[in-house]
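User: Can you predict the 3D structure for this chain?
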Amino acid sequence: MLLNTRNLLSSRSCIEIAKRFGNAKERMAKGLHPNPNAQGPLTDLPDWSYVDGRGFGNPSLGQKRRYLRDVELAKTVVKNVKMFKTAKQLVSDKKLPEKT
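Assistant: Here is the predicted structure, written as structure tokens:
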């Protein structure tokens, strides 16, 4: 059975997609991601786990990608916090007069 691309991309389905993602501005105003599928339990939680409680199954490629992205972000945050603390310490040690 062949897929009929005309039905897949019909004007009705395009309108339905636009309605689903049309509230991006409202979601961003609430502090949420504009794409409702970008975050949430279906995206963030593992796909399956063992019945006997041994842990979770292998992560998907998307989960691996997000994990590596989050690790890099955490490293950047830690590095910037260390730089900020060092700069703050240097300024307090020198006790530079403030310019007025």
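The helical segments are 5-8, 11-21, 24-29, 41-44, 61-94. The chain is about 60% helix and 0% strand.
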